[in-house]
Amino acid sequence: MIRKHALASAALALVMVLGGAANAATITPPSEAFAQNPGSDYFLADYTAYESYLKTLAGQSDRMKLVDFGKTEEGRTQWMAVVSSPANLAKLDHYKSISRRLAKAEGLTEADATALAAEGKAVVWIDAGLHATETVTSQGQIQVLYRMLTMNDAETLRMLDDVIILFAHDNPDGMELVSDWYMRQDDPLKREFQSIPRLYQKYIGHDNNRDSYMSQMAETTNINRQLFHEWFPQIIFNQHQTGPTGMVVFVPPFRDPFNFNYDPLVMTTLQEVGMAMHSRLVAEDKPGSGARSSASYSTWHNGMVRSVAYFHNAIGLLTEIIGGPTPETVKLVPDLQLANGDRPMPIAPQTWRLAQTVEYQWTMNRAVIDYASRNRERLLFNIYKMGANSIARGSEDSWTITPSKIDRLNEAAAAARPANADAATEAGYGRAGAVDPELYALLQKPEERDPRGYIIPADQVDMPTATAFVNALIKTGVDVDRATRAFRVGGKSYPAGSYVVKTAQAYRPHVLDMFEPQDHPHDTEYPGGPPKAPYDVTGYTLAYQMGIKFDRVLDGFEAPTERLSDLVAPPAGAVKGSGGAGWLISHEPNNSFTLTNRLLKAGQPVFWLKDGAKAGAVSFGPGAIWVPASAQAQTVIAQSVGELGIDAYAVGAKPAGEALPLKPVRIGLVDVYGGSMPSGWNRWLFEQFEAPFEVVYPQRLDAGDLGKDYDVLVFADGVIPAPQGGPFRAGRSSPQPQAADIPAEYRPWLGTITDDKTLPQVADFIRKGGTVITIGSSARLATAIDAPVELAIARQEGGKLTALPTKEFYIPGSVLRATVDNRQPLAYGVPQEVDVFFDRSPTFQLKAGASGVAPVAWFASETPLRSGWAVGQERLKGAVGILDIDLGEGKLFVMGPEVTQRAQSYGTFKFLFNGLLYGPASAGQ
Predict the structure, then answer these.
(1) What is the dihedral of CA 915, 916, 921, 925, to 10 degrees?
(2) For the chain, which end, N or C, has fewer CB atoms within 10 Å of the first or last residue's CB respectively?
């Protein structure tokens, strides 16, 4: 479904006109606008005050326009201060048009681009506040803005003439929450924000910086519109606050690996900008910056604000700095006192204050703006150049070289080496490591060409999910077309309404990254050593995660299409047929869960048909949904199918065969004090699909008698804690405040899930007829309550169960192919093979003599990897990922893979959706 903050509703609103002269005498300084000067010790300005100050500045300065670029999930306005010279501000639409034309690169010659680059202004995005507990970015932005609006030195004036700077705030809700929580204490020494009771973004907290390519959150959609639909900045600077221990700030360049899909100019320019930042810090006697090996950040994963930039030919910058309103200490790390290429100027241990951090931020902001000013024409021309490169590569045969292809080349070279290999190598090719150049053909096999485009057929079983995928592409600026009539390509017919995504477009790197598998290198700490942990996940192909059916087209093709200019609704569903007994609905579309929830809410009977059914020539697989005729059911169905994009078939007789009656369910979504991001994603998901639920905290679980209030309990990944060093991935835990130290409304949220107190109550709930669903590492519940299963991949050491060494088994966030028994109710509507997201996930096997356990999804191959990185993947063969377990009168559904991963894995949502309804429906049977 299209969300309320669809692109069309996010049009810019210029809320202030140019004000008075830009000089310090007429512009209110921060020290006069806030209760204390932002950047001073023990003080945080909140978003309400920040917003008020922005409006004040917009009314006073002729260097700034204030732009409303959308509403947050909690309804606050996201503001962006557009800062440049008065002359540039008077022609913003003109410069915006130039920026767009160069970024899209369509229909331009090099001469055209050169002329536009000479005329245009560099556009730089500098944001703040994405991660709200990283408070320095928002406080520092206030000071940076004031200085850019009031300083009249030659450098500042040059910057304002050459550059349009977009100072944006990413997370107003979080700034308000964190700042107010910190300032609630009268005693400055008691101020802290480690004990905030919930996530600092309404649903997902820190994961708001993992939503960039999916764009589920309102704030992400607002940001992406500015970046890839409105302004097309050449530099995107995303500021953060987690500086390396013993240092002050991480500044690019980043460590390897980088992603193989984007243009090399992205990385070479990124290194230029990063080193300009380091150089300015050093020149201003500001030590303690580090790059590359100083931190784990890489440029592999697409999902972050600064990294999505790379796939759009923009320079994405990340800084991570120390500091905060409460003074801290720069620690002494002996090895970091020795300068090297990544750490040019070490810093001595010392007390560190927020004011110092603000000055470092000022320096880095100035360095980036200065680079953009001095390299204005280069930046503008190069974003065109990268876009033109993408269009050219998408218009001809091209190949992306990835690690697995190099492995294959090396294997072929080794097999072809002569007996006197060393001498022959040196004599024939001049240096060790060179191989026969004829083998280069292995890197350009015709069948391994990059696609010229992708076709998403309109006749797939879950077109609403396919449309959600297309909307994710559109939100990130990808050009998507829709067929206006049926057509043929490569001997295959496609119906009208099919989506076409060609790769001959500027954002080709992003297109490839969403459709093609990520081939992560075997990255080790040292040759032959253990795997080096990636910064985030290694495989995330969105088309795979969402279960989209698409065709890769390797040759140029044409189709009768229209360009989609904005988000689209799925093709409207309809009531088909005229029978009066009831309606048959496919279980395969995810939106059938929404329709079921609406019917149950209306008190209407709904059934699942074990053996499926037929309506004329249309066949429905196992789990087909049957709704007996009634006036109220007819109203719900008639009002829903068009919007949801699913069809309901009116038939004249009730289908034969076994039918499982569903019933309204009371869902308890388990969360913890401070908030769980996976639980927050599920909360958002439940709201989108209209599942009835309430959030449950450990104190309520510990109280027992859970069946009085709930039919189903859902434990997201990490909600059931696991001990460090064990076979289950241990989550992060943080200390909780004393009840007396927090407002009374949050005290019921305190507590932790424990093996000795909480889990026995959960087991009792199951045995008395309740349903429990565990996802990811929370599947530890199965072994903790002695269910008849055991871990499939683990070892005994010293009488304790431990994980295998990572050299033997390591799959950090990848997409794997699983086999599914979709005759099982838990898997109704899921295809027989499905791509699952797997992040060091638990897998199981049945204990000897086990009964009442049904494997639902398992790994049938020694090579299940579809996208990402997998060490020892062959060990998964035969391991079970999803199980249906009978315990007493109830059900335990174990889902080791992350079936709702960051609300991206639409292809496996049905496992959760089915469990919510099937468990209570089968209780006691």
Answers:
(1) 40
(2) C
Asked if residues 67 and 12 have their Cβ atoms less than 8 Å apart, the reply is yes
Whether residue 344 contacts residue 282, with contact meaning beta carbons closer than 8 Å, is answered with yes
First to last CA, the chain: 36
pLDDT at 23: 61
Sort strands 64-71 and 13-14 into parallel, antiparallel or unpaired.
antiparallel
Distance of CA 121 to the CA centre of its chain: 31
Task: Quote the DSSP letter at residue 259.
Answer: P
Q: How far is CA 423 from CA 411, 414, 420, 636, in A?
A: 19, 14, 6, 79
- What mean pLDDT do residues 598-607 have? 98
Closest by CA to 773, choosing from 911, 592, 676, is: 911
Q: What is the 3-state secondary structure (H, E, C) of 195-236?
A: CCCCCCCCCCHHHHHCCCCCCCCHHHHHHHHHHHHHCCCCEE
pTM of the model: 0.96
Give 779's DSSP letter: G
Structure tokens at 209: 């910086």
User: For the segment 342-386, what is each residue's pLDDT rounded down to a tens digit?
Assistant: 999 999 999 999 999 999 999 999 999 999 999 999 999 999 999
Q: What are the pLDDT digits (tens) for 22-44?
A: 466 799 999 999 999 999 999 99
Residues 6+ apart with CB under 8 A from 533: 296, 812
pLDDT value of residue 173? 98
Edge-to-edge strand ranges of the sheet holding 551-553? 551-553, 453-456, 499-502, 481-483, 561-563
**pLDDT at 71 exceeding the cut of 50:** yes
Residue matched to tokens 């010659």: 109
